[in-house]
Amino acid sequence: MIKLIASDLDGTIVDREGNISERTRRAFLDARDAGIHIVFVTGRPFRWLTPIIEAFGGMGTVICSNGAVLYDLEQDRVIWSRTLTAATAKQAEQIILEHEPNAAFAAETTRGLHLGANFAEQNRTLGSQSVLDLNSEAIDQEGIVKFLARSKSLPIDDFYAAVAPELTQLLSVTHSAFGVSLLEMAHVDIHKATTLDVYCRELGISADEVMAFGDMPNDLEMLEYAGHGYAMASGHPLALATAQHTADTIEADGVAQVIEKLLK
Predict the structure, then answer these.
(1) How far apart are the first and last CA of the chain?
(2) Rounded to 5 degrees, what are φ and ψ at 98?
(3) Which residue spans traverse the membrane (predicted)?
């Protein structure tokens, strides 16, 4: 029996234009009406939840920043966050620069985005932002929930393979996009599944009562954790190899198809 549905956003239910289809929206609402808990689990910061708000309003709880933030969408507040220190981020920066001297960096904190030189594409708007300074006390006071490293020369899988072995004892490292070579790093104990497990335990729900959907390497632990894990057919090969099941593509409303079948 499924008591909770956990779903990634981008590439899973949110398309390239940033929209959630009406069929998918209706499937989640029907699942909620049937008494199933809904939790969205995303790499996005809590400030970038526009697709969820537009589709569902202030519905429920969202696990953000790959598990580093638990956010109450209904009350518009951070329930808790797990941060890493600026000193740890600085260590990671030094390791990455040894392998990719032209890497650019940024940090998501509980209060905003801190951009290093050459991180963002010219003229791209990323919302409210500050200059990244890993030596400042302010960034530690805010707390880094996600440290980002971008390569403009190495493909993402090559970038990850080059640095991950030296980083895994220091922090967690993953990636979540096909179109940009971007590493996403967090506290060493944090990924989507750790926070999802905490959330489920509070509700008295076991892993075998969870259905989860995802498409990228930052979803791997969640897909392994859930008793019913679905990778999107259009997802990363690692996601497809990890999940027990495959859902149709986002263009075909694959998640909605699975939920509709569940509710029959």
Answers:
(1) 13
(2) -65, -30
(3) none
